[in-house]
Amino acid sequence: MSKNEPQVEVWDIEKLVPYEANAKKHPQEQVEKLANSIRAFGFNSPIVVWTNGEIIAGHGRRMAALHLGLKRVPVIVRSDLTKLQADALRLADNRVTSTEYDQAGVMAELARINAELAEELSFDMLDLGFDEKELDFATDDLGVMDNDAFAEDIGEAVKEQAKANEESIATIDDVAAPVTDALGFKRVTIAESREIRELLTEVKIATGLEAIPALLHALRVANGK
Fold first, then answer.
1. Which pLDDT does position 54 carry in this prediction?
2. Domains of the chain: residue spans and CATH
């Protein structure tokens, strides 16, 4: 190993400095999964920091360690990098670690591990970072047919599903959505904005409608409806 190659050190977790503009988000659910993995298997990857303790890679692992109440964690100090290089590496790490998986391969591996776990009860399947639904899907015996899953009256089942869909749509329809989702564009010029306001004012005066209803009325008239 080269003398200049970064070494793994053990630091007090309080010395680590999160990067304020870190582009990768870590929701609580992910932090808990990381914590479960660290609890079961230990730190597989040290946290990478710059000379001042600012984290380059491993914000989620730090949060997981705090969740577990750990006082000291393994780190790699990249004192060989400039500040700009450290910032670039952080962004590159966030980018290249976000990848797609062979889902069928993941499911097959989960099923294999679960089948052999009875012989080695050293960890819980949830420690692998998958939620219960994913584990159930991977480990269920798909060769066993569940007769209760079939509807006896197909026509009635279709009606019930249609009703459920209508109720779901009605609920979703009440949720606010960005105007750009409906219009298909994000910006207009100041002149176009003025024309839109003038048109809506005319429609309001003529119909008594306000805001969105007025806009919809104008669009329907323009479409000959």
1. 95
2. 8-96 (3.90.1530.10), 103-139 (no CATH), 179-222 (no CATH)
